[in-house]
Amino acid sequence: MVLTLPMAQAIKLADPECRVVFMSQPYTTPIVKLSRFVDEIVEYDGSYYWGLIKAFRRIRPDAVVLLSPKARYAIASFFAGIPIRVGKGYRWYSFFTNRNVFEHRRTAERNEAAYNLRMLASLGIDADEELLPQLDLSILPTVSIPTQPYIVLHTQTGGSAPIWDADKWSELGSALNQTFGFPVVLTGTAFESEFLFTLCERMKHSRLDVHIQPQSDLATLCSVLSKAALVIAGSTGPGHIAAALGTPTIGLFPRATALSKERWGFRGKRAINLDATVAPRPECPQCKNCNCVSSITIGQVIDAARTLMNQ
């Protein structure tokens, strides 16, 4: 969703009178609400074709840009009678859309946000591929953090990409404390609580000032990330959120092309993306037991942190 929001700004720049409606699942709605370029949000509850068709008919758009790779969105937009349906080519269901974009994203020739923006060319909009989301921080909820300033470590990716183990995160926490003297805040979902608790206890055993901030909802997480002195994360949504909020952010990425920093790197002037230092294996990017991200050194992260903290 973060990599989609710049599209709203591009549309408004091309036609300020155009009404921009975002269809969002409930859990991502707090992110969309931060954009002043979105006129309306329609929450989609996950119901299949008939629910989608009704939602599209209620909006009654002149055009729809379909970014999800799931067939049901294209099929529902067709049966909802939307005149202009922009979709991705090379899909078995592409005949349900009438303005298809033929680009293979897996080659990672550009960032995912740039691929999204380029889809607007089908609507006659020549978008700047470097556009960043402009988010309104004033509407974020107030969150009480034990101590400030603090550094956020978002240690999990929900399975979207490989990431460090607890030993390396603990080592990084010690190095950050020695370098900057700031407490560490661990963020994550309820499903990740066991890992976070284990990591927290390990860090406390090393006499680190560490806290766990449960991710109850995205609005709260946004507030925590916006106030951080630094955020370090793997290839996952909270890293993109932090960078979009303007928080100094470091991303840790594997070398596999489909998961690389070239395609999924965090965007913004205060973001640094690091990737594996080892050479890719012959089976990359289909490596089933990819752990090349572990070759990113603590020293690399500390150097990147110094660069960002001195800006």
First-residue to last-residue Cα separation:
28 Å
Q: Report the mean per-residue pLDDT as an integer.
A: 91
Which structural class do the helices and strands define? alpha/beta
Query: Helical percent range?
Result: 25-40%
The shape, in one word, is globular
Catalogue the unreliable spans. none
Rounded to an integer, what's the Rg over CA atoms? 20 Å
Q: Kindly state the number of beta strands.
A: 11
Lateral strand order in the biggest sheet: 8-7-6-9-10-11
What's the number of helices? 11
Largest sheet: 6 strands, parallel
Order of helices and strands: HEHEHEHEEHEHEHEHEHEHEH
Give the strand content: 15-25%
Comma- or semicolon-separated keywords:
311 residues, alpha/beta, 6-stranded parallel beta sheet, 11 strands, 32% helix
